[in-house]
Amino acid sequence: MTTELLTDLTIFVLAVLVGFEVISKVPATLHTPLMSGANAIHGVVLIGAMVITATVSAPYAYVLGAVAMAFAAMNVVGGYVVTDRMLHMFRRRPAVPAARAAHHDEEVAAR
């Protein structure tokens, strides 16, 4: 293993640990805005991983680039899925028709 590869792997592991620690401290009310920003950042990371992978010559670099692209793509897609689910929580529920609501109230009162 070369010194350069060891340095890169060390930086990667430290980035993962710091990222996990920072994200785990985010309160739920800030999650959706943070996720939207993270989606934009991961889009840039995905493009960067593609550009860098296109310039490598070593086989292990292709594998590492493919892994980086896969993780970045998963983060982008997962971020949009989570953001969409959280935004659904803030939508108004459809109004219940008056006849159906009255029938439901009668059932509750009969119990």
Automatic annotation (TrEMBL):
Location (main, coarse): membrane
GO cellular component, as recorded: plasma membrane
Catalysed transformations (reactions): NAD(+) + NADPH + H(+)(in) = NADH + NADP(+) + H(+)(out)
EC category name: translocase
Domain NAD(P) transhydrogenase alpha subunit C-terminal: 9-92
Transmembrane segments: 6-24, 36-54, 60-83
One Gene Ontology term of the molecular function aspect: NADP binding
EC number: 7.1.1.1
Cited InterPro entries: NADP_transhyd_a_C
Keyword Signal applies: no
Pfam families xrefs: PNTB_4TM
Membrane topology designation: Multi-pass membrane protein
Subcellular location: Cell inner membrane
Annotated GO biological process: NADPH regeneration
Keyword set, alphabetical order: Cell inner membrane, Cell membrane, Membrane, NAD, NADP, Translocase, Transmembrane, Transmembrane helix
Function: The transhydrogenation between NADH and NADP is coupled to respiration and ATP hydrolysis and functions as a proton pump across the membrane.
PANTHER family in UniProt: NAD(P) TRANSHYDROGENASE, PROTON-TRANSLOCATING NAD(P)(+) TRANSHYDROGENASE
Record protein name field: proton-translocating NAD(P)(+) transhydrogenase
Organism name: Trebonia kvetii
